Amino acid sequence: MTCSEYYSMEMESDLLIVNKRSKTLQHMQLEAVLNRLSSEKPIYNEVHEHLLKQSAGHFGETTLDFYLQYLPEHFHVAQDIRLFDGIHYFQIDALVICPDFILILEVKNFKGELTFDLEWNQLSRVYNGQKDIFPDPFLQVEHQTRQLTRWLERFSFPSVPIYSFIVISNPYTTIAVQGQDPANLKKRIVRPKNLLTKMESISQHFSECTWLPKEFQKLIHLIEKENLPYQAAIMDRYSLSINDLIIGVQCEQCQAFPMRRRHGRWFCPSCSYISKNSHIKTLRDYQLLVKNTISNREFREFAFIHSKKVARTLLLDVCHQYTGDTKDRKYVLDLV
Ligand SMILES: [Zn+2]
If phi over 0 gives left and psi between -120 and 50 gives alpha, with beta otherwise, what is residue 239? Predict the structure, then answer.
């Protein structure tokens, strides 16, 4: 029996689903901040530009996702992983866990002409007549490999071969290499379309599985449990306070601010749209932009609600947990 047949028999079907990539936290934060920023604010253009860059990145990653869907069923993909190696946190764009090896994918979404200087460990990019230099992605994945090895040791997993590829997601980016390449690094620069073929050729080196199916499942569960996405303080990044934002509940129909509370519903004075749940997105924005908890007063101020009782009912409806006494109760937001 081959390794894959063995796995197909042993693995539970609920583990065989490839994760669907959703937008990164930073992407959602940028969308939320731009949506609540007047275009007359000086910072508006900068935030807008950052969001465009993020969207390009997201597109690149979703191209990779397209090909990852064709992986054999017993392969598991974990994306946007952030783990603690005992000293520092480390981030990995995508991790493919196979019965015989682990593959780290470092995704680069650059446009233009890329040159990997393998001798001097540099990556340069020429785009729109401008040349930029970036750190060597091979050094980056080597370090990630060391950190992942440490992480596996922390949880007493057996040692496993770890491979890594640099994925150039934009099909129109040209790729060149220069310098001596004794380690044949060139072969590890891949386009999403070639990824499956490259992985198959690694698989051929293994006749027996490295992991037992039980260990494999344990590893997947542990990665999900230990993954801690980084919630950067987006408001600090742009030196913004709540006072710089457009506050209130937004109308889903015409995007106007603010909707008014009327007879237990949200009413839009601009387009007369009526809704029951528009405050949920407002609370989600608060979580993305400010923090993971909100008090009754903070909610009333952010959503233009006059009544404490109404605010309380809405918060209890959306938030399933809170901390503190009635007076300084903080509702836990879990909407992202
Ligand atoms: Zn409206």
Answer: left
In a domain, 240, yes or no: no
Task: Select the more confidently predicted residue: 303 or 231.
Answer: 303
Q: What secondary structure letter does DSSP report for 323?
A: E
Residue 241, domain member (yes or no): no
Cβ pair 81, 223 in contact under 8 A: yes
Measured in angstroms, how far is the CA atom of residue 103 from the centroid of ligand 1? 48
Cα of 275 from ligand 1 centre, angstroms: 10
Q: How far is the CA of 38 from the centre of ligand 1 (A)?
A: 17
CA 269 to centroid of ligand 1, rounded, Å: 7
Domain that holds residue 253: 247-332
Q: What's the 217 CA to ligand 1 centre distance in angstroms?
A: 48
Tens-digit pLDDT profile for residues 73-123: 888 888 878 899 988 889 898 899 988 899 999 988 888 999 999 989 999
Q: Is the pLDDT of residue 44 over 80?
A: yes
Give the residues across from 107 on adjacent strands. 167
Q: Which two tokens stand for residue 87?
A: 């000293």
